């Protein structure tokens, strides 16, 4: 037997036991079933562990069984204030209000927790929160990337994602529409726009670029992104040679390539702004109706054109997938080079994975249906694992981007497979899956840690305590805006330009200058702020948001002094502190009441006596400072475009702003 999936057997044997190897033979030889790596086997619903004395659902039974093996006990339940803050941030990306907290605490019924979860899942905020998770993998941005990095107009695709999550579109439908919505019978405008997923890649607009070279890069990007997002495999390793570890040959990589190669597109378009062909008008019927209305009501041609231009900004053209009448030939590329074609290949699937179901065509639609037919061993596991990581801090498989032979072993393999099968059996229902996770006793534990847990379960992979991790970049900004009362919750629409450091673009900008938006646009959710791929916003990068230049499904989570400096000095957070201080003053009679109200609004709990002492002393010290330096107080309150009430004392508001700034920078605030 000749090995073609591995360049060297020895390094693999050192990393994996022999029973874990996937041996892919030349020709038509079968893969040895007993040697197949666990993730290439179809998941099976294992028998549930014996019902434990702890827990409320199947997740808890599996977790408790593993804790017993490690001689650990679950933590006590989190206080209601702690739990509602956690679940609100996880499901909507925004903290619970004091009214929501009070209503939850006063609800003594057995359904209290479930009511909160159902309310959050029904909120339009849920779709915005989940969209942020999906956009990382889809490498969504508001510019084309590379050298010129000019603006695109893909935001209608982002609208589609938000609406899909809010309507609880089944994940199999969600998948099919994004990979092949244009190939569905009588496809709608929305289904075609969904295929913008595979046009979110960077586009080369730099003069002198070779058209075919970059067109090839786009197709390869689609293959790699599909492999990462749905299969959790590093297909990109097989671009230049047979995969060294996973059973994916170079030829099989280019069989996937052939599926995404039939788009009539240009690899290089000089000075491209907006959308490249093929494209479709967003809400085309609505655009035409409004266009006709403008033409009939406005007779002056120049005025007509101005109004049409405004209309086009609301209904732009969106880049989509569209098959050519005749398929383009595809070849294995020697060392992955666009100009080194060798053997011709045709659309196909890896031999190590199940074949298409009978009657399916081997095209993009067939591929999409194959990914979610329930027999594919990866898709349901991959998605369940990534959702688990969103709520518990780590995936059951720690390497959420890779479930291949180089991945981390699952901490709870039976639980992962049980959830993966259950997800498929219940119609790929994302909200149902999430509800099961966040209503589990596992999720509801307090995050307190002791010496024993820290020693036996240092990163909480065994779930011996509740999840606790730093908030994502978008959540930190959105939370500050929400607490301060600045947040403008307008759904969908074009992206906006918010505050950014002066001179940020000077070194790279060639065509025009950054023009900041004003008014309510400054205070929209971070999801709607423009992402310029080559110049990501510094405060987003500081908190580990990816640049979206390429597919990314696993964010880093760092803690650095620069993060604290940003929260203390960045215009967004100083302005938020200013408006938060105004709210604090208006919601308490005494200084102590104001500080207590502000602390609870931000943390969901009342301050302890020692915490209140620190806040009071700090406030009094800054009050004295600003009484002696009134000009500094005025300067502080001029930060940002929002204004405070003229009826409030400038010195008092400035002093309270420093207290609000301190609260917004607490470890408890930037973690959940």
Task: Tell me the structural class.
Answer: mainly alpha
Q: Quote the distance from N terminus to C terminus.
A: 53 Å
Shape type: globular
Radius of gyration over all CA atoms, rounded: 27 Å
Range of helix content: 40-55%
Number of distinct beta strands: 4
Tell me the number of helical segments per DSSP (H or I, 4 or more residues long).
27
Strand content: under 5%
Spatial order of the strands in the main sheet? Answer: 1-2
Low-confidence stretches: 1-34
Major sheet details: 2 strands, antiparallel
Mean pLDDT: 93
Features:
single chain; 672 residues; mainly alpha; two-stranded antiparallel sheet; 27 helices; 4 strands; 2% strand; globular; disordered N terminus
Task: Describe, in plain words, how this protein is organized in 3D.
This protein is mainly alpha-helical and 672 residues long. Helix content is 45%, strand content 2%. The strands form two sheets. It has a two-stranded antiparallel ribbon. The chain has a two-stranded antiparallel sheet with strand order 3-4. Strand 3 (330-333) and strand 4 (341-345) form a beta hairpin. Helix 24 (609-628) crosses helix 25. The model is unreliable at 1-34 (pLDDT under 50).
List the helices and strands and how they pair.
Blueprint: H1 9-15, H2 58-69, H3 80-92, H4 98-106, H5 112-122, H6 124-137, H7 155-166, H8 171-180, H9 189-194, H10 211-231, H11 250-259, E1 279-281, H12 284-297, H13 301-314, E2 317-319, E3 330-333, E4 341-345, H14 364-371, H15 379-392, H16 413-425, H17 430-438, H18 451-456, H19 473-484, H20 538-542, H21 561-569, H22 571-586, H23 591-603, H24 609-628, H25 630-636, H26 650-664, H27 667-670
Antiparallel strand pairs: 1-2, 3-4
Helix pairs in contact: 3-5, 6-7, 8-14, 12-13, 15-16, 15-17, 19-22, 21-22, 22-23, 22-26, 23-26, 24-25, 24-26, 25-26
């Amino acid at each position: 037997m000749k090995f073609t999936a591995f360049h060297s057997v020895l390094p693999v044997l050192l990393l994996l036991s022999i029973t874990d190897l996937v041996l892919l033979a030349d020709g038509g030889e079968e893969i040895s079933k007993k040697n197949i790596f666990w993730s290439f086997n179809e998941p099976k619903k294992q028998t549930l562990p014996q019902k434990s004395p702890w827990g409320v659902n199947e997740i808890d039974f599996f977790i408790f069984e593993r804790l017993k093996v490690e001689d650990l006990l679950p933590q006590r339940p989190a206080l209601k204030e702690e739990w509602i803050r956690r679940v609100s941030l996880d499901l909507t990306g925004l903290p619970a209000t004091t009214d929501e907290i009070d209503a939850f605490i006063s609800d003594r019924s057995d359904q209290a927790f479930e009511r909160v979860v159902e309310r959050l899942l029904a909120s339009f905020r849920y779709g915005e929160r989940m969209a942020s998770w999906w956009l990382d993998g889809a490498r969504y941005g508001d510019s084309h990337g590379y050298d010129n990095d000019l603006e695109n107009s893909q935001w209608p695709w982002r609208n589609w994602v938000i609406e899909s999550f809010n309507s609880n579109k089944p994940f199999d439908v969600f998948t099919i529409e994004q990979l092949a919505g244009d190939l569905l019978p009588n496809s709608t405008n929305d289904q075609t726009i969904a295929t913008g997923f595979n046009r979110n890649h960077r586009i080369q607009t730099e003069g002198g670029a070779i058209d075919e070279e970059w067109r090839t890069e786009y197709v390869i990007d689609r293959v790699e992104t599909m492999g990462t997002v749905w299969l959790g495999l590093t297909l990109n390793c097989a671009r230049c040679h047979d995969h060294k570890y996973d059973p994916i040959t170079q030829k099989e990589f280019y069989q996937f390539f052939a599926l995404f190669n039939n788009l009539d597109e240009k690899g290089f378009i000089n000075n491209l702004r907006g959308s490249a062909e093929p494209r479709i008008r967003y809400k085309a019927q609505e655009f035409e109706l409004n266009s006709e209305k403008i033409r009939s009501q406005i007779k002056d041609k120049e005025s007509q054109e101005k109004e049409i231009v405004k209309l086009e900004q609301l209904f732009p053209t969106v880049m989509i997938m569209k098959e050519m009448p005749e398929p383009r030939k595809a070849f294995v590329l020697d060392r992955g080079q666009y100009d080194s074609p060798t053997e011709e290949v045709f659309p196909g699937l890896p031999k190590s994975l199940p074949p298409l179901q009978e009657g399916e065509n081997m095209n993009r639609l067939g591929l999409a249906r194959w990914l979610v037919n329930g027999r594919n061993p990866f898709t349901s596991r991959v998605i369940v694992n990534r959702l688990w990581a969103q709520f518990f801090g780590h995936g059951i498989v720690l390497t959420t981007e890779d479930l291949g032979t180089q991945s981390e072993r699952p901490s709870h393999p039976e639980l992962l497979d049980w959830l993966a099968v259950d997800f498929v059996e219940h119609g790929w229902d994302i909200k149902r899956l999430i509800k099961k996770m966040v209503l589990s006793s596992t999720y509801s534990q307090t995050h307190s840690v002791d010496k024993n847990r820290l020693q036996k379960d240092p990163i909480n992979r065994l779930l011996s305590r509740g999840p606790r991790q730093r908030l994502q970049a978008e959540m930190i900004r959105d939370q500050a805006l929400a607490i301060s009362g600045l947040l403008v919750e307008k759904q969908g629409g074009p992206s906006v330009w918010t505050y950014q450091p002066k001179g940020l673009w000077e070194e790279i900008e060639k065509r025009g200058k950054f023009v900041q938006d004003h008014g309510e646009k400054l205070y929209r959710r971070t999801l709607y702020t423009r992402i310029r791929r080559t110049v990501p916003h510094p405060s987003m990068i500081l908190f580990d948001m990816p640049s979206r230049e390429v597919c990314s499904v696993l964010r880093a989570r760092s803690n650095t002094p620069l993060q604290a400096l940003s929260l203390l000095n960045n215009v967004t957070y100083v302005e938020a502190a200013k408006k938060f201080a105004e709210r604090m003053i208006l919601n308490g009679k005494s200084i102590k009441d104001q500080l207590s109200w502000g602390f609870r609004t931000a943390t969901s709990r009342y301050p302890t006596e020692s915490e209140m002492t620190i806040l009071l002393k700090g406030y009094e010290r800054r009050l004295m400072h600003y009484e002696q330096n009134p000009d500094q107080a005025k300067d502080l309150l001029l930060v940002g475009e929002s204004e405070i009430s003229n009826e409030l004392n400038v010195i008092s508001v400035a002093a309270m702003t420093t207290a609000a700034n301190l609260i917004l920078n607490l470890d408890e605030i930037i973690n959940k």
